[in-house]
Write a structure and sequence with these properties.
Layout (H helix, E strand, L loop, with lengths): L1 H7 L2 H12 L4 E4 L1 H8 L7 E4 L3 H7 L11 E5 L7 E6 L1 E6 L5 E6 L3 H6 L9 E4 L6 E3 L4 H7 L1 E2 L5 H7 L2 H13 L2 E2 L1 H10 L8 H12 L4 H11 L1 H5 L1 H4 L14 H11 L6 H8 L4 H4 L8 H15 L4 H13 L10 H11 L4 H14 L9 H13 L13 H8 L5 H16 L6 H15 L3
Parallel strand pairs: 2-4, 9-10
Antiparallel strand pairs: 1-2, 1-7, 3-4, 5-6, 7-8
């Protein structure tokens, strides 16, 4: 196994290890890269731990950066696939004051003490050596056996580990979902006992973990664990309220089941689709009355916006997700005219249509239907035909603008001018052929004459 790990470690990382060993310092590869290597998965990050103090590491690697109090030095490499590696001095953490980061850090002298402070056994392994020794796998907590059994357990007492860093509970769920691991009973019980502590976490940290959970092949694994342990209620009571809400979709399944089925069936790209799918019915519990959920899309849009703002979601993506939640209840009939199709495009916005169609596909899957139910493929084709024809769908595509109307018709700037332009756009959407300068000026003149306005 040591040879297998040796072969998987990138050359740039071997170079860093050799420099530390030659400099007289113990050095090891640590963390998730070893876990992923044992699983036969490509490792994303190759982090190192060393007995060298941060200042000594900076001496050994000119140009390295040390700008934190946790003993982590960022070292640049010549490998384009691995431009930077973090090298951290052996640590012993103390006094976790905010349920997230240690209030005080002490540098240690052994890899064993460093591994003892880590979260899960599968992350508490190291491969490396003391100066002058042959590299070996260091596994004091049985991480290799737990990787083989696909089991997630804490290093030491679960509740104590989670009190130290509440994010570990959400990370456990994420690892279970993304690696297809089971969380062993004592660790799972510890999560349930301390779930309320995730309320102390920053929105940014929650967002990072949720993004990874939603990117899993089956997000429902992680989301069900979050609901069952109380983590979901701690980070989003509105989502947790979906459990037990009756939903006349799939026999024996409630609203939460519908959401999970939909999220599993949602497209993975763009990533906002799965988030929109998770949130698309978040307004239903608050609007439930007589078996119906009138206006749940509007209420849900507000709830989704507030939740994503707490999670510090990027503003542009947040706005797109909220718009999808607000618009997801659209209906289509084959009897729609081409003008109705154009009005639909204008209402939604051409740039949002494919996202909305992907969300509707997921919603159908969550309801036990085919993705293209309700004539969705037909609507897609009709929308594509109108877009290909280059029809005017916004004010910028009109053959006239406000300056033209003011110049030709003597209209003063103000709200009336804006309303007239909107009316002209509606006429063009209904009948694209009238979108010429002469035609629109004539329409505007007749409109003003009939209303006796301005």
């Amino acid at each position: 196994m040591s040879t297998e790990i040796d072969d998987a470690i990138p050359g740039a990382v071997h170079d860093l290890l050799r420099t530390l060993w030659t400099g007289g310092h113990a050095a090891y590869v640590v963390g998730g890269s070893l876990r992923d290597t044992l699983l036969g998965r490509p490792a994303k990050d190759w982090d190192l731990a060393t007995a060298a103090l941060p200042e000594r590491t900076v001496e050994l690697f000119p140009g390295a950066i040390y700008e934190n109090k946790f003993g982590t030095v960022a070292v640049r490499t010549d490998d384009p696939a691995l431009p930077e590696v973090e090298i951290t001095t052996f640590r012993t953490d103390h006094d976790y004051a905010d349920f997230r980061r240690p209030h005080r850090v002490e540098f240690g002298e052994s890899i064993e003490l460093d591994l003892a402070r880590r979260d899960f056994t599968v992350n508490a392994m190291a491969w490396g050596a003391e100066p002058g020794e042959q590299p070996r796998l260091v596994d004091p907590h049985g991480g290799q056996a737990d990787v083989a059994a696909r089991i997630l357990r804490t290093v030491g007492e679960p509740e104590k580990r989670f009190e130290e860093d509440a994010l570990r509970m959400v990370r456990a769920v994420r690892l279970a979902a993304t690696l297809d691991f089971a969380i062993e009973p004592a660790t799972l019980a510890g999560i349930s006992a301390k779930a309320h502590l995730v309320g102390h976490l920053s929105g940014e940290r929650i967002a990072i973990e949720m993004t990874e959970i939603l990117a899993a092949s089956r997000p429902s694994i992680g989301l069900r664990l979050m609901a069952a342990t109380g983590l979901l209620a701690a980070i989003s009571p509105d989502l947790a309220a979906q459990r037990g809400v009756p939903q006349n979709k799939v026999e024996g399944e409630d609203l939460w089941d519908h959401t999970l089925r939909a999220v599993d069936g949602a497209a993975t790209e763009p990533a906002r689709i799965r988030m929109a799918t998770l949130l698309h019915d978040i307004g239903k519990p608050l609007t439930m009355a007589d078996g119906r959920f009138l206006g749940h899309e509007t209420v849900g849009a507000g709830l989704a916006d507030a939740l994503l703002e707490r999670w510090r979601w990027p503003a542009a993506e947040r706005q797109r997700i909220v718009a999808l939640v607000r618009q997801h209840m659209f209906g289509y009939q084959p009897s729609w005219s081409d003008a109705a199709i154009r009005r639909f495009i204008a209402k939604i916005g051409p740039e949002h249509l494919e996202d909305l169609f992907l969300l509707r596909e997921a919603d159908h899957i969550g309801s036990g239907r085919e993705p293209d139910a309700g004539g969705l493929d037909e609507l897609r084709a009709r929308v594509a035909a109108q877009l290909e024809a280059g029809v005017a769908l916004d004010l910028g595509a009109l053959a006239v603008d406000g300056s033209d109307l003011m110049e030709d018709l003597g209209i003063a700037p103000g709200p009336e001018l804006g309303r007239l332009l909107d009316w002209l756009l509606d006429r063009v959407i209904a009948e694209p052929a009238v979108n010429t300068r002469e035609g629109l000026i004539d329409l505007a003149r007749r409109r003003l004459s009939s209303e006796g306005a301005l």
